Structure prediction request, 269 residues.
Amino acid sequence: MKEESFNSTDEGLKSLAIDPDVLAKELAAELQGDPLDEIDIENSDSDKTRILNECKLGFKWLRQGHEERLQGLRVFCEHRDSRALPLLIPLLSEPCPVERMSAVYALGRNPSPLAIDKLLELLEHDGNAYVRKAAAWSLGNYSSSSVMKPLLRALSQDVAAVRLWAASSLAEVGSISKEKAEIVVTELLLSLRIDQEPLVRSNCIWSLGRLFEILSQPRQNDLSEGLFLVLLNDIEPSVRYEARIALEQINDPKVLKRVKMLIENGSLF
Prediction:
């Protein structure tokens, strides 16, 4: 978002389209990192001023009607401000699925222990897949022990869009401890073998790569073998490519030697 005056920011934010599919894709991209971390030091003061202005507008909009609340939610899907939490949590119960979805994303951006139970309820029981998808993403930002099992159920039972983000969030949940990592890895390897959606399999690979270092040696071996099976047998080229990247990033000479041998004998392209 370009730097603008307070008034022009108001108009610019109000003009944002609220389309569930577009919004879901945009907000889920938060997994790529925190835009606040990418602010140039020399521009940080002006950026902070802009963000404070946008948050001030967000507080105002969250207290107004449906359309204004959607604009306010969009602000807190992008920015973090703990003062928004008392306004965000009640919106998880709104009848409008776009409001619920946006509130879920905002509470992934602005995690609160007070939101966990409701987010879990939405993940497991909301009738709207966009809302469940948002919950699967947001819960990856929560370290509560109650989060893992619902995400594992979503990974195995929900629609592809929800499974995709459950697979990614499980990397964060599994990184809490070796015990959790081993449980999560077992389920990710299973999904990697049986899930019919290539994007879900790719996200499983991404999470497996994130969890490799936490595992015991036997489970590391299981993980690398699972990735080699995908590398050699998956029908989707993009998934095979993801498996190759994950294996090349594993800090294990035996794994790297095996990848090199597959390349040299023409098994990989």
Notes: The chain is about 70% helix and 0% strand. The longest helix spans residues 44-62. The radius of gyration is 21 Å.
